[in-house]
Amino acid sequence: MAFSVLAVALLLSAGAAHAQMYRWVDGNGRVHYSDTPPVTYQKSGGAELSKQGNVIRRTQSEAERRAEAERQAEQKRIQAEQNKQAQLDRALTQTYTSEAEIDLARDRALEHHRLAIRGAEIRGKAVESNLAELKARIANIEKAGRPVSPNLKEQLDQATRESLDLKRTILNNEEAMVLVGGKYAADKVRFRELTGK
User: Where are the coiled-coil regions (predicted)?
Assistant: First the structure.
C-alpha cells in the first residue's frame, strides 16, 4: 500500500516537473502561481515560468494590449504624415527651381480670384442700381394705394437674391486669396529649407 502511494506521488511529481508554471496578479494585487493559467489570464496578463522560475513568455493584459495598439496606431499616423510630407517636398523641388517661380505661380493663382471679384463688383453695381429702382417703383405704387403686381415682387426678390450671391462670391474669393497667399508663403519657406537657397 505504501509502495503504491509512493509510486503515485513520484508519477505526479514527475508530471509536474514538465508542466509550465504561471504567475499572475489578481484584482486585489495578490500574486498567484499555478500550473494552469487562470480564466482571467488573457484579460489581466501574466507570466509563464520555467521549472527554474525564469519567465519563458509573458502575456500582456488587456490594458497593455490596448496601449500597444494605440502606440502602433500613432506610429503609423506619424509615418503616414512623414510620407505625405516627403511627397510634398519632392513635388515642390521638382516643380520650382527658384523662389521667383513660386511668386509667379502665386500671382497667377491670385489673378483668377481678382478677376472673379472684379466681375462680381461690376455686376453688383448694376444689380444695386436695379434694386434701388425697383424699390422706388414699389414705394410709389404703395403710396398711391395700388396693389404691387406679383411680377414686380418677383423682380425685386430675384434682384435681392442676385445681390446676395454676388456679395458671397466676393467674400469667398477674398477668403480664397488669403489661403492662396498663405500656401505659397509656406511653400517658399519650405523650398528655402530644402534647397538652402
Answer: 64-91, 117-144
